[in-house]
Amino acid sequence: MARNLEKEYYFSTRADYVADHPEVIERWVDAGFRRIFFGLESPDDGRLKALNKGITADANRTAVNICQANGVDVTACFIIQPDFTEEDFLRVYEYAIGLKLNIVAYLVLTPHPGTILHAQRQNEIVHPDYELWDHLHSVFKTSLPEREFYSQYSRLWMKTYTPITIDGGKRFRRLLWRSTWMQKKFLCKKAVTMFPKIALGTDSNREASFANWLNWASGGLRRWRSGNDTTESYQAPIPPQSLLPSLRKPSNQIRPLARGLEKAGGLARKELLG
User: Fold this and answer.
1) pTM exceeds 0.85, yes or no
2) CA 36, CA 198: separation in Å to the nearest integer?
3) Residue pLDDT, tens place only, 160-200
4) C-alpha 197: how far from its chain's center?
5) Residue 52 host element (H or E)
6) How far from the centroid of its chain's Cα atoms is residue 141's Cα?
7) CB 210 within 8 A of CB 140
8) What is the rounded distance in angstroms from the CA atom of residue 238 to the CA atom of residue 206?
9) 54: phi > 0 → left, psi -120 to 50 → alpha, else beta; which?
10) DSSP class of 38
11) Most Cβ neighbours (<10 Å): which of 54, 194, 198, 238?
12) For the residues of 192-227, what is the DSSP string, one character each?
C-alpha cells in the first residue's frame, strides 16, 4: 500500500475467515483487492457439516455481504450432490441468486482418486469412465432418474447465465462487458455447447437426449413454468453433429492419457521421496 503499485488482485480464501475478520477486507481493498472466490458449497448446514466445511450457511452469507459492502466482486462455487431432489436444485439456485454473486459455478461432487471422498465412496462409483469425471456429471448413482437429474442441472446453469431469467441475463451481460474479444468468443461457445453436454448426462442415446434438451430450451420452459413439462412428447430435429463438438462420441485417447498422468505422478513422487 505504501508503494502505491496501482495493481489489482484476486484470490480465494475461507468464508469463515472473512466473516470473523471484516477489517482485513477493508485493508486488502486499499491494496488493490477487487475479487474473491469462496467455496460456499451448499445453502444447507447439514450438508456443510457432512462436507467438513466448519461453517454455516449464515456465516457464508455474512462473508459475502462484507466483501460486497467493500466493493469486492464475489465468485462462488456450489457442490451438486447425487442425492439432490428437485427441491434441492431450487434451494441452491435461490440461495445463490439471493447472494447477488458476480460469478457462480455449480460442480457435481466428484471423488478424485487419492482424496478422502474417494476412499470413503469408491465402492459407490457406477461410472468409472474418466470421460465423465469433469465435475459436470455424477459418477455416483443419482437419487433422481439420471435423465431428470441432468435436466434439473442444465436448467440450473441456464437460469443463472442466460436471459431466460432477469438475473441470468444481467450476469451474462456483465461477463461479456468485462471480457476481451477472445474471452467473449469462448463464453458464447461455452453457452452453446455446455448446456447440451450437461443435459446429455451419461445417456448413451445421445440423439434422443439432445432432442429432449432442445425441446426444453426452445419451448418446454413455458410448460415447466406452468407445471406441465411434457418433455417426452416431443422430438426436436437433430442438427449435424459437426456443429456440436461436445456431442461427439468419447475419445479413447483419454484413457491412455489418464494412465500416463498417473504413471508420471508416481515417478514424480518417487523423485521427491528420493
Assistant:
1) no
2) 27
3) 887 778 888 888 787 777 777 887 777 777 666 666 666 55
4) 13
5) none
6) 19
7) no
8) 10
9) left
10) E
11) 198
12) HHHHHHHHHTT-S-HHHHHHHHHHIIIIIHHHHHTT
